[in-house]
């Protein structure tokens, strides 16, 4: 190091030192960006999609006896005489998405063959319990489902229905 005019050693940043700082700084920025992206990815969506409150439609759009798949919320909306039931499409065996077989009037998991009736109750296969449900809320003639709160159950009970 060369002494400066004041006699103290002059602090200068060498090329290697500068490149080292630049490299560490770039890694820090990249790490921060990755952290922000990961946080956004893992955080449940608060409105409009799965993990939050999902708008299903107007009450009148769902006929009594109908089963409609709401893709954005990953659930089926069942409307029976007693009201609405939202069934998470996730199989309670190992988590496959369960399609509804209209011709057989049942849910049929393609992975290992579990069968569920229209209320999501197991009628066959290895699934250990009925399909989980989500809370349904009716507001001003509209059906909303809170997909942040799946509920496990051991059987169907009419009290699980939300009156229209
Ligand atoms: S994941 Fe549905 S039966 Fe296995």
Overall residue-averaged pLDDT value:
89
The CATH topology of the largest domain is Rieske Iron-sulfur Protein
Q: How does CATH name the architecture of the largest domain?
A: 3-layer Sandwich
Number of strands: 11
- Beta content comes to 25-35%
* Chemical compounds bound to the protein: FE2/S2 (inorganic) cluster
Largest sheet: 4 strands, antiparallel
| Rg estimate, integer Å | 28 Å
Strand order of the largest sheet: 2-3-4-9
Can you identify the CATH superfamily of the largest domain?
Rieske [2Fe-2S] iron-sulphur domain
**Uncertain runs with pLDDT below 50, 5 residues or more?**
none
Order of helices and strands: HEEEEEEEEEEE
Distance between the termini: 83 Å
